[in-house]
């Protein structure tokens, strides 16, 4: 079934509170909702949500790239259009959004949910972590709220205060955690090598599930030394592009990598990377870069496929509550898990004003 129309709809979505990370702070999220329509009137949707601070192009660059590609879509099938997409390069967020819209439309045409097109199995519940911010007097309250919602993995930002202060607060928090609840720490490249080596020994007795980006200067040999000493996984996030050469994954010095399709150029490049990592014994966690609901739906399908192809992980996709309004309903999270269901496509349904 051929494509007859492609539309680009700008959006700005306010957040319930500022989103802070190692790469910036945001009060709202901007992007482009992509809609691709075929002869039967079916529409596939994708979210082009650039985040330059995370390594993507800018909003104007994404728009320019998308409009240049739209001119080539009419008369093509989604499969043909996908085959003509360039390799991921300087416009990863735009490419991710366009590829997602084409995959959504293709899976609708084939009457299958997207995860099936990606190699996933039906009925899988995808485990999610939830973010509880940094260490402050309210951290324990936020942790208990998350635990009451049945989250067993809580993501915590470190590197925002002096090390000794954070360690004291971290021990206090861990003393209050029930059995089975673990912390996923993100150090935001905060520590010098010597500091990190000392901290690993102090973190080892605690219920830590993973530590992301511990080093200010992430040298491979030092990361490998840290991983040898750590009882838990270390993970590459912002440092990961330095280990990707073309279609190959170079020797990874840690046991885990963070997969962000918006930064990698799409679901299919992300899936290729997951397969490469799996063959090397590296675990993968799929994580949001604060996409709209149009972007979170396909990421959940990717997580379902990844959990079929590799050892199931706890993914970082519970971010929709940060939006005070959205482009459509996000996937429902129940007991810290999401199931994408058997609806053809991604399952995303735009609100009328979103297109």
TrEMBL record:
Query: SMART domains this protein is in?
Result: MR_MLE (SM00922)
Q: Where does the Mandelate racemase/muconate lactonizing enzyme C-terminal domain start and stop, copy by copy?
A: 136-233
Q: Which UniProt keywords apply?
A: Lyase, Magnesium, Metal-binding
Task: Identify the EC number(s).
Answer: 4.2.1.113
Q: Mind listing the GO biological process terms from this record?
A: amino acid catabolic process; menaquinone biosynthetic process
GO molecular function terms listed in the Swiss-Prot or TrEMBL record: metal ion binding; O-succinylbenzoate synthase activity
Cross-referenced InterPro entries, in alphabetical order? Enolase-like_C_sf (IPR036849), Enolase-like_N (IPR029017), Enolase_C-like (IPR029065), Mandel_Rmase/mucon_lact_enz_CS (IPR018110), Mandelate_racemase_C (IPR013342), OSBS_N (IPR041338)
The residues forming a coiled coil are none
- What protein does this entry describe? o-succinylbenzoate synthase
Give the species this sequence originates from. Answer: Sedimenticola thiotaurini
């Amino acid at each position: 079934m051929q494509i007859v129309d492609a539309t680009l709809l700008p959006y700005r979505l306010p957040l319930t509170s500022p989103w802070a990370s190692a790469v910036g702070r945001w009060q709202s999220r901007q992007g482009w909702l992509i809609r691709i329509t075929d002869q039967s009137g079916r529409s596939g949707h994708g979210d082009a949500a650039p985040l330059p601070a995370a390594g993507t192009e800018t909003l104007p660059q994404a728009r320019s790239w998308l409009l240049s590609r739209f001119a080539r879509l009419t008369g093509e099938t989604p499969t043909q259009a996908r085959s003509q997409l360039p390799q991921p390069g300087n416009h990863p967020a735009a490419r991710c959004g366009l590829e997602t819209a084409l995959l959504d439309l293709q899976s609708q045409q084939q009457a299958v949910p997207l995860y099936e097109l990606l190699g996933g199995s039906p009925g899988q519940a995808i485990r999610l972590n939830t973010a509880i911010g940094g260490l402050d007097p309210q951290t324990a309250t936020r942790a208990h709220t998350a635990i009451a919602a049945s989250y067993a993995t809580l993501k915590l930002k470190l590197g925002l205060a002096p090390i000794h202060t954070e360690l004291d607060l971290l021990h206090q928090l861990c003393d209050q955690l029930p059995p089975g609840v673990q912390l996923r720490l993100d150090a935001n490249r905060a520590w010098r090598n010597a500091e990190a080596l000392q901290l690993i020994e102090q973190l080892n007795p605690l219920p830590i599930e993973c530590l992301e980006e511990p080093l200010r200067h992430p040298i491979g040999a030092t990361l490998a030394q840290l991983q040898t000493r750590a009882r838990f996984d270390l993970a590459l996030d912002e440092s990961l592009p330095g280990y990707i050469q073309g279609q190959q994954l170079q020797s990874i010095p840690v046991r885990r990598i963070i997969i962000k399709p918006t930064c990698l150029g799409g679901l299919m490049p992300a899936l290729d990377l997951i397969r490469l990592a799996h063959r090397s014994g590296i675990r993968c966690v799929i994580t949001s870069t604060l996409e709209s609901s149009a972007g979170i739906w396909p990421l959940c399908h990717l997580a379902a496929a990844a959990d079929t192809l590799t050892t199931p992980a706890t993914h970082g996709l519970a971010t929709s509550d940060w939006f005070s309004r959205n482009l459509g309903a996000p996937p429902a999270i129940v007991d810290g898990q999401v199931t994408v269901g058997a609806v053809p496509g991604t399952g995303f349904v735009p609100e009328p004003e979103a297109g």
